Amino acid sequence: MARTTDGDGTPVPQRLLAAATRLFADQGYDRTSVQEIVEAAGVTKGALYHYFGSKDDLLHEVYARMLRVQQERLDAIADADAPVERRVRDAAADVVVTTIDNLDDASIFFRSMHHLGAEKNKQVRAERRRYHERFRALIEEGQKSGVFSTATPADLVVDYHFGSVHHLSTWYRPDGPLTPQQVADHLADLLLRALRP
C-alpha cells in the first residue's frame, strides 16, 4: 500500500503534482520521464500509478486543478449581487491573477496540450468551454441590459480577453515592474473600455 503522506504530512498526489509541474515547466512534458517525476517526489512508480494512471493523467491534472479554481471563482463572481459591470471587471481581473498565480501550470498546458490523449483533450476542451461560456454570459447580460455595447459580438470579446490571458506565460515576470493585481487591473480596464457604449 502506498503511503498517503510524507514526513511533513504532504499527500503523495500533491507531491507528485508539484514534482511533475516543476519538471514539465523546466524541461518540457515530452522530455520528462516518469522516473524523474517519482524521484523528485520521493515515491515509487507504483505510488504514481496508484494515484495517476499515466504521465498523461498528471498533465491533465496540472491544468484541471487551475481550471477548477478559476471556475469556482467565476461562478461566485457571476452569482454575486453586484452590477454586471462590476462582475465582469472582477471576473476579467480574477482570471489574470489566478493565471499568474499558476503560471507554470498555464504555460505547461498551452505548450503541451497536444500531448494529451483524445479523451483527456476532449474533456479539457469541454471544461474550458464551460468557463468561457459562463464568462460570455456575463458579457451578454451587460449587452442585453444596455450597459455594454453590442457592436462587438460577445464571443469575440471573450476571445480577445482570453487571448491576452493565454499569453501571460510568454511575457509576465514576477520580478517585473507590475504586480499580478496591477496587470489584472490594466487588462480588466482595457476590456471594460472596449465594452462601453
Automatic annotation (TrEMBL):
Top-rank lineage group of the source organism: Bacteria
Pfam families (UniProt xref): TetR_C_24 (PF17932), TetR_N (PF00440)
Residue intervals of the HTH tetR-type domain: 10-70
DNA-binding region per UniProt: 33-52
Keyword set, alphabetical order: DNA-binding, Repressor, Transcription, Transcription regulation
Protein name per Swiss-Prot or TrEMBL: TetR/AcrR family transcriptional regulator
Species this protein is from: Streptomyces huasconensis
